[in-house]
Design brief:
77% helix; Growth Hormone, Chain: A; mainly alpha
């Protein structure tokens, strides 16, 4: 925490010396929330999404083939990413709880965004330096810790700074930028990593990691300098250990409906994470694509473009109609997309189904985040948004622990059967998520 205090003094001096015109421009008075402020409070999400979309969709899958047997790649992928995401589940609410209770001069959120980004940049080279599964496993887990320190604080900007009647729009912009980050970097990283081999073409791995690092630094600096938070009262309102304890003692009963929200998000996120993580291996094993990295990038880009078209209109529509009807409809539409994908047997059919999934998931992720901000207890915004990671990262961890081995097991029974089983499981998850939405009751939702 000493480093945060020193950085606080440095940035505090910079802030005090700014002239009044710039100060007014950067001010985020939630009574008059200007359109440019939506970009300021969400631009960091562009880089975070780019980082994890590239790592989880292409880079990690190809690097694992340098260490593990071909027949066990799905199992090792599940263990790796599942364990890392368990760390994310723990780190994000802890970072959020500490952030909620900090009172540094330049805000509750920005110091931890800076600290988490620094850690992430330090650990990112481990993805390229490791030469065994064990060291790769450790590097990946450290990367998760650093990233989630930053993310646990960053995502509280919307409830902190945006009026309730504009949070659907803000959530749409947030999701829009996150999708844009994922899509843009996949378009670059996919072809680059398609040229990668561990012995001769390692340059492409380092080039991809370098782009991600530069993007993280650039958006972090933009966030630190342009987002103006209200200064805290100084120091910490609770001791650090007490804040950590409170992060595991969140009073969910006070927001009982939040449990149903987490349940719904958990099921739906599990389905989408399964599709994202194992798409590359599906193309390799079943479709027989010569360059699966590039094709996987194309698939995820199509999904991403569909999401881009949906997220902002869905967020604005939810401000008018309520969150629940739109979240419920998007889950059912996703179930339809999975059912069609189950019967697809050509590249073109898969891409068409992916478009439908992109539209439905874009609608879900934008509106669902706005629903989360409606349910937050006052004064514990970052903590409870960190707890949504129980559904986001937790869903990914759960599905990876059992989907990977399940795919490998059923593939030994019949060629490609494991991926069909995966599609059936995803269909069930979407239906379960839609039904759980109906149990959510809270402010600002219709139905």
């Amino acid at each position: 925490m000493l480093s945060i205090s020193l950085l606080s003094v440095m940035l505090g001096s910079y802030t005090k010396n700014k002239n009044s015109v710039i100060n007014n421009y950067f001010c985020m008075d939630n009574k008059d929330f200007h359109p440019v402020n939506y970009l300021k409070i969400t631009i960091f999400g562009f880089a975070i999404a780019a980082l994890w979309s590239s790592l989880h969709s292409i880079i990690i899958q190809l690097r694992l083939l340098d260490f593990v047997a071909e027949s066990q790649k799905n199992s090792y992928l599940g263990i790796l990413t599942g364990t890392g995401l368990i760390l994310a589940i723990a780190v994000q609410p802890i970072a959020g709880a500490i952030s909620d209770r900090s009172g540094l001069h330049w805000g509750r959120r920005r110091p931890y965004i800076l600290l988490g980004t620094i850690f992430t940049i330090l650990f990112l080279p481990g993805i390229g330096l490791c030469n065994s599964y064990l060291t790769f496993f450790i590097a990946y887990c450290l990367l998760q810790i650093g990233s989630n320190i930053a993310q646990g604080s960053y995502q509280a900007f919307i409830p902190d700074l945006v009026p309730k009647e504009k949070r659907g729009r803000a959530s749409g912009v947030k999701t829009l930028l996150e999708l844009a980050g994922g899509v843009a970097l996949l378009r670059l990283v996919g072809p680059f990593m398609g040229n990668y081999t561990a012995d001769k073409e390692a340059f492409w791995l380092w080039f991809s990691l370098g782009i991600l690092a530069l993007l993280l630094v650039g958006t972090m600096v933009a966030t630190i300098l342009t987002v103006k938070e209200k200064p805290g009262v100084g120091g910490y309102q609770l001791p650090i250990l007490s804040a950590i304890y409170r992060s595991f003692k969140a009073n969910i009963k006070r927001t009982h409906t939040f449990i149903w929200f987490l349940t719904s998000r958990l099921f739906i996120m599990m389905a989408f994470h399964a599709l994202q993580k194992f798409a590359l291996y599906f193309f390799m094993d079943v479709i027989g694509i010569a360059n699966p990295a590039a094709v996987t990038a194309d698939l995820l880009i199509i999904i991403g473009v569909g999401m881009l078209f949906a997220v902002y209109p869905a967020g604005r529509l939810s401000d008018k109609l309520g969150r629940k009807p739109i979240v419920f409809s998007s889950a059912l539409l996703s179930a339809l997309g999975i059912m069609l994908l189950f019967f697809s047997n050509s590249y073109m059919q898969i891409m068409l189904c992916s478009t439908l999934l992109g539209l439905s998931f874009g609608t879900f992720i934008s509106t669902n985040w706005a629903l989360a901000t409606d349910l937050l207890p006052k004064g514990e915004e970052a903590l409870y948004l960190g707890l949504t990671n129980l559904a986001t990262a937790g869903g990914s961890a759960l599905v990876l622990f059992f989907i990977g081995p399940t795919i490998d097991y059923f593939n030994t029974i019949s060629f490609g059967l494991g991926y069909k089983v995966m599609f059936i499981i995803c269909f069930v998850f979407f239906i379960a998520g839609a039904l759980a939405v109906l149990k959510i009751k809270g402010p600002n939702q219709s139905g």
